[in-house]
Amino acid sequence: MSRPTSNARERLEQLEQALGRLRREKAGLQQDKAGLQRDRAGLQRDKAGLQRDRAGLQRDKAGLQRDKERLERANERLRRERDQLRKALALARRAGKRQAAPFSKGAPKRHPARPGRKPGRAYGPKAHRPIPKHVDEELEAPLPDGCPGCGGAIGHRRVEEQYQTEIIRTTYVTRFRVHVGACEACGQRVQGRHPRQTSDALGAAASQLGPDAVALAAVLNKEVGVSVGKTAAVLQQTFGLRVTPGGVSQAVARLGRKCAATYEDLTQRVRASASVTIDDTGWRVGGYSHWLFAAATADATVYAIEAGRGHADAAKLLGADFDGFLVRDGAAIYRKFAQAYQQSCNGHIINRCTRLIELASGAAAAFPRQVKALLQQGLALRDRFASGEVSAHGLTVATGRLEATLDRLLGPQYRSDENRRLANHLDREFPYLFTYLKCPGLEATNYRAEQAIRPAAVIRKVWGGNRTDTGARTQAILMSVLRTSHQNEVDPLPLLADLLRSPHAYVLDIVPLRPAPN
């Protein structure tokens, strides 16, 4: 009986130990539960804090989004203002080359040099009006009866001569008694013509302007740039010749038709020239935009007024198959003369670089400064070769080095928009920048065409252009004749007067004969 009791006691102790262990585990679990509850409460607080932070971040995000949209609108507005300012600056630059600006030398100097000739040897060559070769009238200037200072007698010593060249303010009217008859065989009407007549018109058109008056009116209007109305005023106030502006216009148009053969001859001369310089400028015909082209050589200049500014318009003047040297600016229409040996104007690019250097920042100004220096090196090389300092082989080697240097300058990608545009332009013009060094004697700039354009620009500024296509044709013809006469130091007035007197048109002798080619 005692053994079972012992087993029960051991079993009871085991159960008590197990119960104590379970109680301890329960207490631990309760502690863990309390800790977890505290952690849960902390997490809930953290969650609430994070939710508040999230709400704050969402509010910040919304505020930043609003700021972003506001900045984008401001950026777009500034971008538009920048583009407008760039356009305004470009217009201001172009306006500076129009109207009176080209003739302005800027603000006066604070301490200018004394005007007039310098004294002594620095005066330079002295000149005066030459003595006239003939005298139309001789007048005596006798001594006064007494000295104007004291009233004493004056003794005669010598006679000095003074000459005064004057214009005669009068008109000269010639009446032609034109004999009119009829052929007794066929009955055809026949009338006489005097060598000094300029027209066969009779009846309502019997009173006409003389050839010298018409020639002078053409020079005033087409070369000097005086308007038709003021040309009529000059003829009346200076010579007493009463004529309406319409009469002047019709007479000048008649002279233009007589000069058409000379214009065609000049055009063919220019097309056959070894080297031609060409340029263009805006013009107006009947209030619509047109373009005036000028093609110039050393001894001839021809103009053409066209409705457009394309290659086809320039080819009407120069010929699409022109195969000589063509000196021109960077306009794309001239690069299409595929058979020509072209020279791009270095002066235009140097001036463009100068403007960029003045406006660009230090880093952005480096590229145009290098290009300008490179082109100026080319011009200096040309002058050194012309003076004999550089041989033909040295010229070829130096030209290759200039082209290699320019090629390296065009390699990088430039950040400035102006520099990128300049680099793209130089890349297109690269084959034509140093032609003048490969063909010594060729001009490096299109100055000759610029000089031909300048009188036309002055005329355009004074009276705007032409009213009709016929007037534009007359303008181109007479400007070509007068400009070519000026180039060759030929007085056009007697030549134009003789042409008007001739019953048939002929080519005026205003261009010297060229030597026969070898």
SSE map:
Blueprint: H1 2-95, E1 180-182, E2 189-191, H2 211-224, H3 228-239, H4 245-258, H5 260-271, E3 275-285, E4 288-296, E5 301-306, H6 311-318, E6 325-328, H7 332-335, E7 341-344, H8 346-359, H9 366-386, H10 392-409, H11 417-429, H12 435-438, H13 447-463, H14 469-487, H15 492-501
Parallel strand pairs: 3-6, 6-7
Antiparallel strand pairs: 1-2, 3-4, 4-5
Characterise the protein shown here.
This protein starts with a helix and ends in a 17-residue tail after the last helix. Helix 2 (211-224) packs across helix 14. The strands form two sheets. The chain has a five-stranded mixed beta sheet, sandwiched between helices. It has a two-stranded antiparallel sheet with strand order 1-2. The chain is of the alpha/beta class. It has 15 helices and seven strands. Mean pLDDT is 90; it is low at 99-103. 53% of the residues lie in helices and 8% in strands. It has helices at residues 2-95, 211-224, 228-239, 245-258, 260-271, 311-318, 332-335, 346-359, 366-386, 392-409, 417-429, 435-438, 447-463, 469-487, 492-501, and strands at 180-182, 189-191, 275-285, 288-296, 301-306, 325-328, 341-344. Strand 3 and strand 4 form a beta hairpin. The chain is elongated and about 185 Å long. It has a domain at 346-444.
